[in-house]
Specification:
The protein is mainly alpha-helical and about 230 residues long. Helix content is about 80%, strand content about 0%. The chain has helices spanning about 1-30, 30-75, 80-85, 95-100, 105-120, 125-130, 140-155, 160-170, 180-190, 195-210, 220-230. Helix 2 (about 30-75) packs parallel to helix 5 (about 105-120), helix 6 runs antiparallel to helix 7 (about 140-155) and helix 8 (about 160-170) packs antiparallel against helix 9.
Length: about 230
C-alpha cells in the first residue's frame, strides 16, 4: 500500500512537471514574437553599451588625460591662469571639465579648477567647480569639501563653511588632511558659539590624531571650550 502511494505521488509530480513544461512551451508559442523582440532589444542594448564604452568613451578618456596633463604641469608651477585657461595649444582645466564631461580626467579638472580659483581669490568659481567634483578618494574628497568651506569662510559665510567642514571630516580618518579640517571646523563652531561641537572636534583630534600637528597644542583649545560650556 505504501509502495502504491509512493508511486502515485511520483506520478503526480511527473504530471505537474509535465504540465509546467507544457505551459512554458505554450507561452513561448503564443508570445514568440514578443520574446524575440525582447531578446533582440537586450542584444542591441549590450552591443550599444560595448560600442559606447570602447569606441567613444575610452578614446575620450585617453584624449582627456593628454589634455589635463599639461594643465597639471602649469598648476604645479603655480601658473594658475594658464592651468585654468590653457596656453593656446593645450586646454586648461575649465575646457577639459566642459569638453570631457563624464570622463575621469574631466572630473579631476573640476577639482583642480576649484583649487586654482580658491588660490586666485575667486571664491564663487571655486565653489562651483569643487561642487561639481565627486570622488571617494580618502584625500581628494576631504580636501574638495574642506576647500569649499574655506571659500565660504572667505565670503564671510561661516555657517556654510562649517557645513562643508563637517562634510569633509564626517566618517573620514585620513591622518594627513582630516585633523587639519577638524580643527578648522572646531574653530568656526566656536566662533559661532557652538562650544559643544567645537569640544567634540577638539577631542577627536586628541584621541584619533594625537600624532598630528594639530594635536600639539590641542589641550588649550579643549580647556577653553570646556570653560565656555561651564
Amino acid at each position: 500500500m505504501a509502495k502504491q502511494n509512493k508511486n502515485q505521488q511520483e506520478d503526480e509530480v511527473l504530471v505537474d512537471v509535465g504540465q509546467s513544461i507544457s505551459k512554458v512551451e505554450a507561452f513561448f508559442e503564443e508570445n514568440s514574437k514578443s520574446v524575440t523582440l525582447i531578446v533582440g532589444a537586450l542584444i542591441v542594448v549590450v552591443a550599444g553599451y560595448f560600442a559606447y564604452t570602447n569606441w567613444y568613451q575610452l578614446p575620450r578618456e585617453n584624449d582627456a588625460k593628454d589634455e589635463i596633463y599639461h594643465a597639471q604641469e602649469y598648476f604645479e608651477q603655480d601658473s594658475l591662469k594658464l592651468a585654468l585657461n590653457g596656453d593656446g595649444t593645450y586646454l586648461g582645466f575649465i575646457d577639459v571639465a566642459e569638453d570631457y564631461s563624464g570622463t575621469k580626467a574631466g572630473n579631476m579638472a573640476h577639482y583642480y579648477a576649484g583649487i586654482s580659483y580658491l588660490n586666485l581669490g575667486e571664491f564663487q568659481n571655486a565653489i562651483e567647480h569643487l561642487d561639481n567634483f565627486s570622488s571617494n578618494h580618502p584625500i581628494y574628497s576631504v580636501i574638495a569639501k574642506g576647500a569649499i568651506g574655506d571659500a565660504f569662510l572667505e565670503l564671510d559665510q561661516p555657517s556654510d563653511a562649517l557645513d562643508y567642514y563637517k562634510r569633509a571630516v564626517s566618517g573620514e580618518s585620513n591622518q594627513f588632511v582630516v585633523p587639519f579640517y577638524l580643527k578648522k571646523a572646531a574653530v568656526v563652531a566656536q566662533s559661532e558659539g557652538d562650544f559643544k561641537l567645537a569640544l567634540k572636534y577638539y577631542k577627536r583630534i586628541e584621541t584619533e590624531f594625537g600624532e598630528s600637528n594639530e594635536a600639539s597644542d590641542i589641550a588649550k583649545f579643549i580647556a577653553l571650550a570646556e570653560a565656555k560650556l561651564k
